[in-house]
Amino acid sequence: MDNDEAWNAFLQDHPIFSLPKSVSGPTGKGNLSLELSLNTLPRFTDINPNDDGPTPSGRRQSMVIKDADLLVASGNEIRIASLGDSKLQKDSPKSYKVLHTPNVSFEIHTIALNPNSKLLAVVGAFQVAVIVLPRPGFMKLVPETIDCKSIQVGQYYHASSSATPIAKVEWHPWGEGGTTLLVMTTDGKLREYDIAVDTEEPQQVLSFVPERKSKSFVAEDLSEREVASFTLGKGHADWGPLSVYALMRSGDIYSICPYMPKNASIPSSYIHALECFVHAKQEFLAQSETDTTNSLSNLYEYQHKYVTSLIKQLPSGAAFPSTSQSFLLHPPNTIKTSPIRQGPFLLQPSPRNLDGSEGGDATDIVYLTFGTSSDEEDDEGETERLGVVLVAYRDGKVDVCLDVEKVEAKWEHRYHKSNDLPMLAVYETIDLGFIRNLNKVSSTSSDSSLLDLLEGNHPVFLRDPIQDETVYVYHAFGVHALQLGGVLQALGAALRDDDNEGEEELTKAVEESEGTTVLSIVSTFSVERQCSNPIVGVAIPNDVYLTYSIFILTSAMRVVCLPLSLRSELDTADESAGLSVSQNRGRLGRSLNQSLGKSVAANPDDPSAYVSLLTEPFEPAPVLTRIAGLPSNPRLALPPSPADAKGEFRLTPDTLRYLGTTFERFMAQIREVQLAYSAAKRRAELQRQEFKRQQDTCQQMLDMIDNLTGSRQPSTKGKLVALNEAQKRLLQREERILQSLTKQASPELSEHETKWFQELKRMKAEVTGSTRYDENSLQSRATLLRRELDRLMPSLKDLHEKEERLKKRLAEKQSIGLSQAFEYGERSSAERSKITRLEKEVLKLADKLEVTLGRPPAPPDNDKS
């Protein structure tokens, strides 16, 4: 199974993708209940807790891949099959096994693996359960059914008749042991359950929708109080990982920061980086004087207390800069107030509405961070990783927003109140083409517009686990791939460029970027029947034993497999939507050519510089560079028609129109491929010519080197020796000429020069003396003075030591008697007389030596009487 055809052929009739009994059974609702059409639209929009049927409404994720095992949710049962064994044993019969979970009796909408792939969250429209997956290898020992432990989560909140619908469920990546499950309901309550501690009561509850005031008469849109989805923030040295973003159905975005699980396993490197971040904020605030300094100072003080409490929970061996490890931490209780809800976010500039749409409800949000794959630990000192927020809507609009102003921790406090709202910079608005495609289809069976089908559409994001710049959007009409690499390359290059002057270069980079590359890879909308099978599951294996590919599952349990290709960081065939590596090389090449041209113009006598025939780097045509190897035309996974069951083929005007459009697209792509082939062929010929020129030039250079190091070397050495001798003769001649010119210009000394030399002789005689033993010379007198000073220094040191000892004794005893004071006075007088005699002797000696001395040191104050 080395290609997508092998996977498709293997999984096409695999029993794991058989329809549930609620659809295909004798009392089932039939395949029509799985299709989105004008007739079945009410099933997709109505929410009935008593009748949660198999209709694929709302958020769906019915397929996940655990290592080499495929798990599929069908109805109220979980099926599992080993793809690794099937890959090795191609001739073995296809089979699957069922996880026996009696507690799961509801229709399964979403399944999610926890970070260590040991637990599986099973989510319905209103209920949540957790299944303990079997150990690896245990599945081979059980024939058909595997008994698994299953636990219902929060039955009081999610299993009652008045339960609120579930918007999204996600495992927290920093939960201790991977057991922290976050459940968001549409009423804005985010409940945190620790499966290892308590499955009934949440550990923490965050509220993104304030309670209604009983006496309030403010008109409010219901969509502003209904949560559609949520996502966790990301970052390295900021509050991003401790932030939660919630998306309302109206499109408003709110956040709460800080939030961490009750039992969290957080890397110590992040805690130390966050401490440095808060400390830098405080230092910057201390140097600035603004009106908001007081409120910000209180806010940063709260943040400092929060981080300090986390630092204290780390063990002593986790101090910076030790190796980063994850440690068990708990939310600090030093701050009694709760984190405040921040928002709604200002989207600047305001996102545009799609043509033909009045604006649909928001369905999903995702927070992405981008950077080199190896800078997770090593590149923390470089530019901060760029955060991108994607928001999807029912009408096919996707807003790409840049998180330029990171959310910071804030609490409910009177000093922290601020009217400033957080902001997201809207980079672009993507149109997935739902409205355009539905308008092209003529509605013959009904007078209603096909645009009503958008009410049953629910786009959902899926991150690529390997390539973080690729995001997939699956919805009721197929799957789209969004490639953000070009956008991020352009912005990253502009941000990292140290030569940018102001914001002009950054603005220019944003304007020149072509935006996100959008590609439709699977289409499930039938033009003939005017209906669609919504996508209910997308999975990408992240296992070395499976091919890097994407598995797509429709509501009719039809699977489509597409291979994906890995791209290296230095791949020159980057997308045209951004600043590629080849463009950077082109800039370097142009700058080198300009510098060479300037050097040639400055020195016209020098040999001409080598000019390459390849002035610009080669850029492959866009038709040859596909996103991760995905097909340029979407694969069809259409609902089966009645004619297919009879083996007939019906040719309708819509079918002809679709075939004509597809034929034109293929012909245009063929022409583009032919043009790309011609361009590549011309480039290859030009590169061969350039290679031949470079070979000839290199051969000439080698010949010149051989000539210089061979036959010309002795003659060159002889010339160098002759030049050296000639240089010496020229220097000697120059010296003689200079002396003769000096004698001719001034043969005798002038009067001032004569006086100057006489003064120098007198000063020399005064310092060194007229004879060797002249006692009146300054040198002899200084030597004599030094000897006398050396003779007196020991006695002076003894006196100084005695004085120090006396001071210590006086300090030890605060008061002394009269007799002792009298005795000390006599000794002091005797010592003073000795010092006076010594001073007189030194003064006499100085007079004899004619040396001026400074004033003697004054006696201390305590010696004065």
UniProtKB/TrEMBL annotation:
UniProt keyword terms in alphabetical order: mRNA transport, Nuclear pore complex, Nucleus, Protein transport, Translocation, Transport
Coiled coil segments of this chain: none
A GO CC annotation given for this chain: nuclear pore
Main location: nucleus
Gene Ontology molecular functions: structural constituent of nuclear pore
Biological process annotations from GO: mRNA export from nucleus; protein import into nucleus; ribosomal large subunit export from nucleus; ribosomal small subunit export from nucleus
Alphabetized InterPro entries for the sequence: Nucleoporin_Nup88, NUP88/NUP82, WD40_repeat_dom_sf
Cellular localization per UniProt: Nucleus, Nuclear pore complex
One Pfam family of this chain: Nup88
Protein known as: Nucleoporin nup82
Organism the protein comes from: Cerrena zonata
